[in-house]
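Subject: sequence -> structure tokens, single chain

Hey, anyone have a minute? Need the predicted structure for the following. Not urgent.
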Amino acid sequence: MTTSSALALACVGSLVLAVVLAVIGFRALGRARGVRRVQVPARLLSTSPSPGGDLVEVEYPAPDGTTLRTRMQVFRVHAPGQPYIFDGTVWVDPARPTDATPRRQGRTSGAVTTLVLAGVALLAALGTGIGSVVVRFAESLPS
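Reply:
Had a minute. Here:
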């Protein structure tokens, strides 16, 4: 097998991986955004700085009247409609009251990580594709 063929094969493999990761990432993102959540008041118990935001511990009421506690990351997001700090409420999935987040859309970090990896695989496919063309050209030159 020539070097250009190996690079072409790596290009195809990277492209397939990128497509698979993109499909998985977009489906996970859709599921996270599709969870119906309700906003409930929460009491801040503690806060500690963490990269990109704060790690907060809050108490909030469960549907049965008991009090639940959770720790969650509140990122400093500079986007329209997104609070920069804990605003005294959490968004809870009524079907799973222990699933509380500081934003309505829910947990998307896993989906975003998968989409970033899909982008990396796409760049790898582009790089190996260009490399394959260059090496094939070099192989075609007389020695």
